[in-house]
Design goal:
Number of strands: 8
Radius of gyration: 16 Å
Strand content: 25-35%
Structural class: alpha/beta
Length: 183
């Protein structure tokens, strides 16, 4: 759903599982800064019953922060250092921690997405439950990777290119697990 409709839709839909994939500044013209949208989401989630199961991208600091102090969370992420671009993009959307300090990255995939930590307050990327390793981005029209989840490993081949589609696949598997669907 659109970023700003989350507070309106949660009470109407009453979902058992909510998936948050990322938070980028593509909607700044309508919603303001990325942190303002994240604050909107945190407020909506705080008013929702605690049994809501969140599925969150561990590699996006703003999204991962939604799971702090919650028990019902499944994180997904990429564990493949060969995809590291060396540093977050200069126009990244989440360069600062919720405490205000600058985030540090040991792996940066794209934008602000990667393995992050805050040396000031100790926040860091949560350990993902659903993981992609051995990612082969190929020619941009297909991708292959190893999916690790719930103690099993599967080779995945997709006729969709891009690391963002690997993340979408991980989100789908994590949501399926949260809904207790068979692997």
């Amino acid at each position: 759903v659109d970023e700003a409709t989350v507070p309106l839709l949660l009470p109407e839909l009453r979902p058992r599982v909510a998936v948050f994939t990322n938070l980028f500044r593509d909607q700044l013209d309508r919603y303001g800064e990325v942190e303002a949208v994240a604050a909107l989401w945190r407020k909506a989630l705080s008013a929702y019953p605690a049994d809501l199961h969140l599925v969150l991208k561990a590699d996006d600091p703003s999204v991962a922060s939604l799971g702090e102090a919650r028990d019902n969370v499944t994180y997904f992420g990429v564990e493949d250092r060969k995809l590291d671009q060396g540093a977050p993009d200069h126009a990244s959307d989440a360069l600062s921690c919720t405490c205000g300090a600058r985030l540090e990255y040991s792996v940066a995939f794209f934008g602000h997405v990667g393995h992050w930590r805050c040396d000031a307050c100790g926040r860091s990327r949560p350990k993902p439950d659903v993981v992609a390793t051995g990612v082969d981005l190929r020619d941009g029209r297909s991708v292959g990777f190893e999916l690790q989840s719930a103690g099993s490993i599967s080779s995945i081949e997709m006729a969709l290119g891009g690391l963002y589609n690997v993340y979408n696949a991980l989100a789908s598997v994590a949501a399926s697990q949260a809904l207790e669907l068979p692997f």
